[in-house]
Amino acid sequence: MKFRQTMVQTYPFEHYDPIRNFTITFREVTMKDVSLLHSWMHEKHVIPYWQLNLPLREYQKHVEKFLADNHHVLLIGETGGTPISYWESYWVKGDVIGNYYAFNRFDQGIHLLIGPPSYLGKGYIYPLLLTILFHKFKVSETTKVVAEPDVRNEKMIHVFRKCGFIPVKKVNLPDKTGLLMFCERSAFERRWTDWQQNKF
Question: Does the predicted TM-score (pTM) go above 0.90?
Fold first, then answer.
């Protein structure tokens, strides 16, 4: 019972970012978000790495399937009330990435994208990523968060590095060659402190 209680993370989750001077919100995806997410999946910067530029009905079925899978949570990340990002927050236990390293039962992972092109390259990803890591590490037993960006996605790898992730190894996943990356709690805490003190 303790295991189940500890693993509960509640949404929506809000955090005021003092550096960017806006409130960050993470809320769960619902079927009402399908059209928005579908439009993001057709953006040029998203297509190569997500490969979900499907017809609307097919994408709707994809979201329905993911919403029914309780080992992860689909999230919309907002800044100042505007939805700008999509996140898949998951437990490594029960996920395919768990086949590629000796995971701890409380390890967590994330997939993410910035949707609207107008928000690219303006630094929004850093407060968003750091904030969701802050939320994940609220689980006291979680000592590591993992990511496995496409090895071709140099910009995303740079973002993960800057937020405290270190590369571990390349992994041949069913849909891509990924770079397995780990963010340990201690590394995150240093980066979180740097951000809050505007030393990032």
Answer: yes
Return the axis-axis angle of helices 34-41 and 56-67, rounded to nearest 10°: 120
Residue with tokens 């000592």: 143
CATH class name, domain 2-141:
alpha beta
Full strand arrangement of the beta sheet holding 13-17: 13-17, 22-28, 72-79, 82-91, 108-114, 144-147, 176-184, 166-173
Domain borders along the chain are: 2-141
pLDDT digits (tens, 9 = 90+) for 103-126: 999 999 999 999 999 999 999 999
pLDDT at 3: 36
pLDDT at 199: 85
**How far apart, in whole angstroms, are the C-alpha atoms of residue 50 and residue 37?**
12
| Tokens at 175, concatenated | 């849909």
Question: What are the residues facing 122 on neighbouring strands?
Answer: none
pLDDT at 66 (0 to 100) = 94
Q: Which two tokens stand for residue 169?
A: 């190894």
Task: Name the stretches of the chain with pLDDT < 50.
Answer: 1-5
CB-based contact 163:149 (threshold 8 Å): no
Q: Distance between terminal CA atoms of the chain?
A: 39
